[in-house]
Amino acid sequence: MLRKSLVVLLACTVGGIAPVLSAAAVTVAAPTTSSDGAPAVGSTPEATINTLDGVLLKSMQGGRRLGYSGRYRIVAPVVQKVFDYRRIAALTLGDYWQKLSPEQQNEFVGVLADLTAATYAARFDSYNGEHFAIVGSQALQPGAEGVFSTFTEHNGKVHRFDYILQKDGDFWRIVNVVADGVSDLSLRRAEYTETMQKKGFAALIAHLKAQIAGYAKGS
Question: Is Signal set as a keyword in this record (predicted)?
């Protein structure tokens, strides 16, 4: 089952990561720890996912007490660290990415990071015993790995979150998330390239900022 999901995960990731399965077996994750016993953030793909899951639980547990802005302040620094937004931006925009100026590229990367934090802060807003669990991982090729995890609601319903991560120096960062079989990267690529083609870069940025404002207002 994990191997089948890995194939889907690879197929949903656009460019840059060759679809080569390693001979290594799927392994159950064992988080790396630092000298004080805490997870060594980003030192392994599993540690990166544990870091993300931990801050989302913290956001949920803060709930209304923190409010949207409080949850955003907790989530934003972590998602900035665990996602490779420049890589995601290039994969999302495809050929349009190279046509942007450095200033436009930096603006787009920043808005993507803000949108991710806003989405998490708005959606992970209450806690009633929900929990995350890493169920396995597999090397895809040198410097790329898939991590398989679940999110269980208080009523027992289980959602699947599969991640592709790439190594960036000594740190593992997320480049794609497949939630219940739906690739975030593929959805964004379809939406954003269509907007770029029809309306241009300024319209795309305005659209994403409107989404961010909508999350803030709706919460």
Answer: yes
Domains (ranges, CATH) in the chain? 2-15+40-218 (3.10.450.710)
DSSP, collapsed to helix, strand or coil, labels residue 202 as helix
Q: Which of 156, 130, 154, 165 is nearest to 49 (CA)?
A: 165
Torsion of CA 214, 78, 2, 139, to 10 degrees: 140
Question: Confidence class of residue 3 from pLDDT cuts 50, 70 and 90?
Answer: very low
Write the pLDDT tens digit of every residue in 110-138. Answer: 999 999 999 999 999 999 999 999 999 99
Distance CA 11, CA 186 (A): 10
Give percent of the chain with pLDDT exceeding 70: 81
In the structure encoding, which two tokens stand for residue 102, read together? 């450095």
Residue tagged 């925009």 (tokens): 93
Encoded tokens for 163: 């991640």
Of residues 96, 74, 62, the one with CA closest to residue 202: 96
Kindly list the distances between the CA atom of residue 190 and the CA atoms of 12, 44, 133, 193, 208, in Å, as whole numbers in the listed order: 12, 31, 30, 6, 14
In tens, the pLDDT along 182-196 reads 999 999 999 999 999
Confidence label for 78 from pLDDT (cuts 50, 70 and 90): very high
DSSP string, 129-145: S-EEEEEEEEEEETTEE
